[in-house]
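Amino acids appear as letters; backbone shape is given numerically. Here is one record.
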Amino acid sequence: KQWYQRRVAITAGLQTDLCLEYCGILTEALKLRLMSFEDQITELNQHMAYLYEAMKDFGKAASNLSAIPLENSQKNYSKAFTTQMYLKIAHLYLEGRDSNQAEIFINRASLLITSTTEPDLQVKYKLCYAKLLDFRKKFLEAARRYQELSLEPRLSLAEQNELLRHSILCAIIAPAGVHRSRLLSSLIKDERSPIIHGMLRNTQLGHLITLQQVTLFEKELDEHQREKLANGMTILEAAVMEHNLLAISNIYKSIKIDNLAQLLRVPALQAETVVGKMIAEQRICGSIDQIDEIITFEVKTQPWDEHINVVCNKVNHVIDLLNQFEPEFLKERLQHYGC
């Protein structure tokens, strides 16, 4: 142990590159006696991860932390510490844009998070999971998670506003449809939303989005949100095309496929394919007459029972929030009304 302490003391005066190389050599040497130097190897891996993270080499930082034997260790690490390490590794992989590796450690953390009572860990887990959904292009679900986290009182105001921004970005580029429209309505009612790009209001109101608005808005997206899809369009271009198609369906009762393609600024075959896909997924109501090349849109009316169900779900959500943040007030009100 004294030999180790003397060697570690040398790293204090080394430059970062030399320190990383020296720590790597020292770690390999100690691995020959892993049973005796497990704590020291863990300490070295954590130190190298810290240095790599400072250099923004997130992949190597995560790799060093994942080398720590959290599950097969002689030392009985607490579930809270193990969960914290898994989430840290997942966070680093997400920062390095490696969602596949991040998902592995988020899944490991999910097995332990239910037995952890630390609120901060719960928040970190939710944040990592929301980011994973974002990277996996599950933008609608990611937007919901970001919106929920933006109301988390343990986070700072700046962090809440940043999460709200992510929620709005994901909601706008999510596939057009009823669920997205409901989420956009919820976001536009949030008094903090004016700090975000004005495209939110245009999207929520069902206005046609112009090419100029797309160009301005694209600058606000993260790198993984600007990727191109298999059809050659970016994620934003595909989302805007579906949104504009939904807006057109509210304006026209029927339209020629060629005319629709001109409005969407895409080839006629692509316009027809997208319409067919959205009809099949029940995101719009209509039919395609391929002989006459006409698309007919239908107005979808919601049954009365569905309206009641929506209101009941919103009431339940409000009660859950009151129970979480104002339990005494909720208890007093329920007793007042004899519930």
